[in-house]
Design brief:
The chain has 270 residues and is an all-alpha fold. It has eleven helices and no strands. The protein has one domain.
Length: 270
């Protein structure tokens, strides 16, 4: 590849990172649900490589947010631990299965693209649900009721749904964002929305880190590509977060839902 073309190609990856970071900053949605389809459709990256690279992309981009939320005491750690107790073992089991079957085999590639397609359709529905239901969710909790709000409907549900999300994230890199927030809203109806979002971001970090490093051990991470995506995403998140209150959130979420649904259907049809 000529140097000029290679430089343009690298710049395109940085711009893709900036675009995804911008959407994440604006809506809190994006990450794997946008980056993985972009890598597959626009850059021709193999599904297994796109998933593995995006998992570490998500882990690194959410670390800063988790530290900031932890310092401001917005994270309910019992919620994070309950979900992690289900999601991380499920991720490890899924990685073992991928290692046994071979991440690059045609059967596994087909499973990844089909599952990713359905995950994007679920994310599209969850994005709309959050836009509508999120307005009615509690924004604060009465003093002394924090422990009650952090209790799930049943102790087993976070483990079960955590395992499902852990499997989904490891296979597709999608699931710890809009889907995770929707699950938390259903499992913890008394927990304020800002704390639900904070818990979702916090538990996504160890999950995506474990799944991403597992994919790296399988040779499914493109490290130079990861560096280019991160170089674009960090300023993108900063710009998006500063524009958050100046843009029509419902319109953006509706358009994003349509885009995700289209990408999901296209992946299923591959």
């Amino acid at each position: 590849m000529p140097p000029t073309v290679a430089a343009m190609h690298d710049l395109a990856f940085v711009f893709a990172g900036f675009f995804v970071g911008l959407v994440v900053g604006l809506t809190g949605v994006g990450g794997g649900s946008l980056m993985t389809p972009i890598l597959i459709f626009f850059f021709g990256v193999k599904p297994y490589m796109a998933v593995g690279t995006d998992l570490l992309f998500a882990a690194f981009t959410k670390m800063g947010g988790t530290v900031k939320l932890a310092r401001s005491r917005h994270i309910d750690w019992p919620v994070v631990l309950n979900l992690s107790a289900g999601s991380i073992p499920a991720a490890l089991i899924t990685l073992y299965i991928l290692h046994t079957l071979g991440a690059t085999s045609p059967e596994v590639q087909r499973l990844m693209t089909t599952t990713l397609g359905f995950a994007l359709l679920m994310t599209a529905a969850a994005t709309l649900y959050k836009a509508l239901r999120g307005k009615a969710a509690p924004i604060s909790v009465a003093k002394g009721q924090e422990a009650v709000a952090a209790r799930p409907r049943h102790w087993s549900l976070p483990l079960l749904f955590g395992a499902l999300i852990g499997t989904l994230v490891t296979l597709t890199s999608v699931g710890a964002g809009a889907i995770g927030v929707t699950v938390l809203m259903l499992l913890y109806p008394l927990l304020p929305l800002p704390r639900i979002v904070a818990a979702d971001i916090a538990y996504a970090v160890p999950l995506t880190l474990v799944a991403g490093m597992g994919h790296a051990s399988l040779g499914s991470v493109d490290w130079p590509l990861l560096a280019k995506l991160l170089a674009g995403s960090i300023p993108g998140i900063w710009v998006g977060s500063h524009l958050m209150f100046k843009t029509p959130e419902r319109v953006i979420r509706s358009l994003l839902s349509l885009l995700l649904a289209y990408a999901g259907l296209k992946l299923i049809a591959l």
